[in-house]
Design a protein that fits this description.
The chain is an all-beta fold and about 120 residues long. About 0% of the residues lie in helices and about 50% in strands. Strands 1, 2, 3, 4, 5, 6, 7 and 8 form an eight-stranded antiparallel sheet that branches. It is globular and about 40 Å long.
Length: about 120
């Protein structure tokens, strides 16, 4: 794969159709769309977007992400809630479960790591 440069204003234009989250809690039902730049590899990088809503999430792999837009609170099963907004970078350890409360559409870049990474 060759080096690819992305412009922030076009990064989210080519995402697939949004799909509802698997475990919504109430209305509205959040929907996500994502694109990985290196296919279906277990360690992958890409972009992700989520519309407002409340839903349960289990992050099976470790993930590092930088939020580009939006506002939300992640309430982990263990620990204090984490408010995120544009400009924040967050590391989620493997097997992080909790509740997302997305108040304004979130957009982020991410790297999800292999278990051994």
């Amino acid at each position: 794969m060759s080096i690819v440069r992305f412009r922030p204003e076009t990064l989210f234009q080519e995402l697939p159709e949004a799909v509802p989250v698997k475990e919504p809690i109430g209305e509205p039902v959040a929907a996500t769309r994502a694109r990985s730049f290196n296919g279906a590899a277990t360690t992958r990088a890409g972009v992700w977007e989520c519309s407002p809503g409340v839903w349960r999430r289990q992050v099976l792999q470790a993930e590092y992400c930088t939020f580009l837009d939006g506002e939300a609170v992640f309430e982990p099963d263990h620990g204090e809630p984490v408010a995120v907004r544009a400009g924040d970078a967050v590391y989620f350890p493997a097997n992080t479960g909790g509740i997302w409360r997305v108040s304004r559409t979130l957009r982020k870049t991410f790297v999800v790591f292999d278990e051994g990474a």
